[in-house]
Amino acid sequence: MYNIYHIPGKKIGVTRDLTSRVTEQQGYAPDEYEVLLTSDDIDYISTMEIELQKSYGYKVDRQSYKNLIKSNKMNINVTEQTSTFPVPLNKLKGRLKDNVGLTWETSHGTFTITHTAIDWIMLNARTSMFNSERCYVYNKALSSTGNQKTRKINQQDDRTVYDLIRMWANDKGIYTKGDSKTQYLKLMEESGELAEALLKNDRPEIIDAIGDMVVVLTNLAALENLRIEDCVQSAYDVIKNRKGKMENGTFVKEAAQVSGDTTFVGSVNYTQTL
Q1: Residue of higher predicted confidence among 201 and 249
Q2: Under a CB-based contact definition with an 8 Å cutoff, are residues 267 and 261 in contact?
Q3: Dist CA 268 CA 251 (whole Å)
Q4: Phi and psi for 160 in degrees, rounded to 5?
Q5: Secondary structure (3-state) at 88
Q6: SS3 for 141?
Q7: What is the pTM of this model?
Q8: Pair (194, 264) in one structural domain
C-alpha cells in the first residue's frame, strides 16, 4: 500500500512505510505529519503526488514516484557464495526499503526483501574488499534464516561473537585494506605468543593468545569469502565420527588402508591427517 504523506510547511512525499520513512529517517513524530491519500495503485499515487505538490505550493519532484522506484531498483549480483548489493553499507538500509518485495535467485534458494530480511541483512552485510561502494551477504547464511527469522539490529544479544568481530574488522578497514597473507603472518605471531604463554604457564596470556588467534582466523576466513562458523562446522563434520585412541598425549585415528585384496585398519596420527 502506498501512502502520500504531508509534513506541513516542508514537503509532500510517498512511502510504503510511514514509520521508517517519515519517523525514523526524517525524524517526524506521527502527530507532526498527515496522510493525504492511500492506494495500492502506483500510477494513481504517482500522479496525485505531483498534483498535490503543485496545489500545496511545494517543490515538484522531477521524477514521478513510479519512475523513481524503477530507477532505484537494485541489480543484485549473485555468485555461488554471495549476493552483492550495488551500494555502500551506509546506504544499504534505505535502498533495501525502497526495494521491499524484490526477489532474486541463488544456488541456495529464492530470497525476497522483506522488513525481517532487511534486519538480518543489515546485521550480516559487509563491505566488499574489492569495491567500497558495494556490500554483500553470504547466501548460505541467509538461507539458514529461512528469510523469515526476525533479528533486531540494535540488540547486541542477537549477534554472535563472530558477527561482532567481523563488524569490528570491517570498521577498522581490515577487509578493504588487508589481505589473507598478512592475516596469516599475524596468526603465526599470535601462535608464537601462545607457545610462550604455555611454556610459562601464564593463564591470562594463554587466554589472550587463543582469543587473538580466533579473531585472526575469523578475519582470515572473511577475506577468503568464508565464514569461520562454516569452517569450524566443516572440520567438525569430518572428525565427529572418527575412531581412535590417545597415544603420548595425541589422538591417533584409525584409518582403513587397502593393500592388494586385503583391507586392514592402521593407526594414523590425527595431527598429521586432519
Answers
A1: 201
A2: no
A3: 9
A4: -80, 165
A5: coil
A6: helix
A7: 0.41
A8: no
